[in-house]
Amino acid sequence: MKAIALQKHLPIEHPESLIDIDLPKPQPAGRDLLVAIKAISVNPVDTKVRSANNPPPDEPRVLGWDASGIVEAVGPDVTFFKPGDKVFYAGDLTRPGSNSEFQLVDERIVGPMPASLSFEEAAALPLTAITAWEALFDRLKVAMPVSALPRRSILIIGAAGGVGSIGVQLAAKIAGLDVIATASRPKTEQWVRDLGARHVVNHQKDVVEQVRALGYRYVDYVLILNNTDQHFNAAAELILPQGMICTIVENKGELDVGLLKSKSAGFIWEFMFTRSMFQTPDMAQQNVLLTEIARLIDQGILRTTVQQVLSPIHAQTLRQAHAMIESGKTIGKIVLKDF
């Protein structure tokens, strides 16, 4: 089968940073689905793994943690799906990724593809939808829907990217929160407003000052999707006493969590691969939440976040997508379709 692989950790400009290879077609076992890949999307995690300062892998490594496709075969213990089903999923960081014609994936982290979407529209959603859903409802413990009056508020830092684009929708349309989104360009500001943000502030300026100018002394929740080191102090200043801050971005320096002590405020991480990486007892919750995302999409409540589609799926177009992600200027999601 065709695949795109990493053999050396190289800058994306290097022609060997990602290469086309042929691999044997895998066979499903246990609760595995064998999925014929129709479309994939690219996330910052792809670029981080590719560019990591690590020894080269012992054998070519296939990256990719977002896909849509058709179930071709199933393992003997599969109960959720059957051959011919259309599915979408983000996969497992510890297994070969979706940048290949066929992929094995545990059915517990797979969802039925939204019937109203094309493969490329569906491929834009899984990783970001899982991350945003888990961050809001599992980590921050946002009630769904929020019934308290006055309405609660959330500050989403870095709202125009992949996770933010679905997170704004979930927070505004499902949880009923007042969303204060950050964006730094007119195009991204309009994008997050269209998705449901009530207010937009510029994260390249003083965020605390801007949020306070909107009339919010504190916000109930903060979700950091960009540069935790830069934004942690502002989040600590703005978070409501007994509120919660969640981030998905690893820090490079020390974070002064002591700033949260007097407020009895909480700080927590969201990493959507935790359930699959550690085979947690609630691993199948990702099937549940992707099924709910598909329902909300098909009902027109949520929308796909794909902004650009490249074709075909091979090393050259995948390198192009990685370069676009690394530019830090992407809006929504970049998708590749058709091998």
UniProtKB/TrEMBL annotation:
Q: Which domain of life is it from?
A: Bacteria
> Per the database record, which ranges form the Enoyl reductase (ER) domain?
13-336
Q: CDD domains, per this entry?
A: AL_MDR
Where in the sequence is the signal peptide annotated? none
NADP among the record's keywords? yes
Keyword Zinc included in the entry's annotation: yes
**Any idea which UniProt keywords this protein has?**
Metal-binding, NADP, Oxidoreductase, Zinc
* Alphabetized SUPFAM superfamilies for the sequence: GroES-like (SSF50129), NAD(P)-binding Rossmann-fold domains (SSF51735)
InterPro entries (alphabetical): ADH-like_N, ADH_Zn_typ-1, ER, GroES-like_sf, NAD(P)-bd_dom_sf, Zinc-ADH_QOR/CCCR
What family is this protein classified in?
Belongs to the zinc-containing alcohol dehydrogenase family. Quinone oxidoreductase subfamily.
Q: What is this protein called?
A: Zinc-type alcohol dehydrogenase-like protein
Organism per entry? Keguizhuia sedimenti
